[in-house]
Amino acid sequence: MRQIGNKESGFLPERLSYSVLRRCLQLLMAFTMPVILSGCHLFEDDDNIELPVLQVPAEFKVEKVVGGLQLPTSVTWDDAGNMFVVEAGGGLEPEKLAPLRIMQIEDGKATVAVDLSGKGINPAIVGIVWHDGAFYITHRGEDLTGSVSRVTKSGQVETILSGIIDSQAEHQINDIRMGPDGRMYVAVGLAGNAGVMGPSVAPWIMRSPNVHSTPCQDIVLRGRNFKSVNFLTAEPNDSVLTGAFVPFGVATEPGEVIKGVKLCGGSILSFNPTDPMGTVETHSWGYRNLIGLAWDKTTGAMYAAENGYDIRGSRPVKDYLDASLRVQKGMWYGVPDFSAGREPLTLEKFEVPDSLQAMVFVSGQPVGKNLEFVIDHEASGLTPPDPSVVLGRHEFNSSPSMMDVAPASWGALAGHVFIAEWGDLAPPTNPLRGKDPAGYQIVMVDPATGHLKPFARNMLPGPASGQGNTGKGLDRPFDVQFGPDDAMYIVDYGVVKIDMSKAPPYAYEPGTGAIWRVSKK
Question: Which Gene3D superfamilies has this protein been placed in (predicted)?
Fold first, then answer.
């Protein structure tokens, strides 16, 4: 290929196709951090061009550890430094779509360490941690309630905690971590979108009619009931009223007291692993769908990542962000009456069009469709959350998931919180969202400033599969952890697409999961 000028001039080749220039410009514009310009291979023949799909800052390198995994969710290491990943077996609903297994990862291969099929475990297995010679996993039990089980490498399974009602719906028990105090911590999602059970969770209600959001302490309701189609009857015109924190079809009254439960939803629960049911207690609560937990080993600060509201169900919320949070013991974080940014939902900006809202009734009388509080906070002894608890302000629908804190060896980035953003599920979770994707990346937050920016993401926005690059970049990053070698490990759940012919409308592609490793050059 003839060059303009000599070798020292550094000019581009004389004949450079427009498509190559366009791709290189996309690479430069799509990523705000430093990139390796050698990623743009300036050849005339487009068929020979292999642009990097997964991008990281220039001082780091990224490599695939293993691919072909069956819906992996979380990674852990044993005392000898061996890596294990748990395969969920399913997705948002408790149907088995793939094997329920713990896999050992070694030399670029995944081998079965423990087969969990037929052992009282229902999908999805979400969290895993190694402690005191065994694995601890979170999952749905035989009755679909949220559970924790202890699993040995020989395959013995003992369920040590069970009965979390909220997990019978779409948001279940998620991350599990050992805290610096020797107690084990779990992140628990809240049933339903915003405290009210309705048609958007019909498949779960039909399996478990008593499922509902549960509070961690006694609360007093304002008696707001939401009218919806009664999908439990054959009559097409049948409707029903449903209040907050009660099963579908149950109306509430102003001043009605809902008793708090020990195994509550929308919470962080902690327990002594030697006596879980006897020592379980609420660390903090008032979250929506809490996914990930992490601690800064230097400062002791605790963080959590939360999936925010959807525009769906009987009580839809048009929020403006998802959030990662600073965790304070004993605090109520405001859900379902405060936004991800911890602002009151009574603000007009959180309202959705009337066509998407249910009519609200109080004491049998219609009161309109405004988004009001469902809890009497003063009567319940609840203090509104302070917005300062927000760590990172993530894009709405980006779905912040599991997280970790960079170790000291990461220099200027030590202490930064890295969070996997699983990505949006629009339009089922947000019919008002445009085509621009949210999430599908790893972001980092500086706790000192709250500044959030991407760290690892595809060259173009959205999942790699949507760009014709399945397996070459991130699709649904769910877990990010720093290993014993101080490298970052990213667990990618794999391809999940929207299929409106299904209920729920999600199509999973087992066998497309992967683990990526990011390290300094």
Answer: TolB, C-terminal domain (2.120.10.30)
Dihedral class, residue 342 (left if φ above 0, else alpha if ψ from -120 to 50, else beta): left
Residue 2 lies in a domain: no
369 and 390 share one domain = yes
Instruction: Tell me how far CA of residue 233 lies from CA of 191, 222, 225, 250, 364, in angstroms.
Output: 22, 28, 19, 15, 21
Determine the structural domain holding residue 21 and report its residue range: 7-48
CA–CA separation, 222 and 256 (whole Å): 7
- For residue 318, the domain's CATH number is 2.120.10.30
Other Cβ atoms less than 10 A from the Cβ of 427: the count is: 16
By CB neighbour count within 10 A (0-12 exposed, 13-18 middle, 19+ buried), where does 368 fall? exposed
| Together in a domain, 15 and 102 | no
* CA distances for 262 relative to 39, 86, 282, angstroms: 53, 27, 7
Residues 362, 498: Cα–Cα separation, whole Å: 36
User: What is the model's pLDDT at position 355?
Assistant: 95
Task: For the chain, report the end-to-end CA distance as a whole number of angstroms.
Answer: 32
Can you point out the beta strands (E) in 179-310? 184-188, 219-220, 225-229, 239-242, 257-258, 267-271, 281-285, 289-295, 302-307
Q: Three-state SS for 254?
A: coil
Mean pLDDT by 10 residues, the chain (521 residues): 31 34 41 36 33 89 97 98 98 92 97 96 98 98 98 98 98 98 98 97 96 98 98 92 98 98 98 97 98 97 98 97 98 98 98 96 97 98 98 98 98 98 95 93 98 97 95 97 98 95 89 97 91
Give me the pLDDT at residue 18, please. 31
Is position 298 within any domain?
yes
Q: How far apart are CA 94 and CA 90, in angstroms?
A: 7
What gap in Å lies between CA 49 and CA 467, rounded to an integer? 15
Q: What is the 3-state secondary structure (H, E, C) of 306-350?
A: EECCCCCCCCCCCCCEEEEEECCCCCECCCCCECCCCCECCCHHH
**Are residue 104 and residue 38 in the same domain, yes or no?**
no
Structural domain contains residue 495: yes
pTM to 2 decimal places: 0.90
Instruction: Give the tokens for residue 498.
Output: 């929207």
Find where tokens 């169900």 sit.
313
Q: What is d(CA 429, CA 146) in angstroms, rounded to the nearest whole number? A: 23
Distance CA 155, CA 147 (A): 17
Which pLDDT belongs to residue 9?
Answer: 31
pLDDT at 52: 73
Collapsing DSSP states into helix, strand and coil, what is residue 23?
A: helix
Q: State how far the Cα of 98 lies from the Cα of 91, in Å rounded to an integer.
A: 10
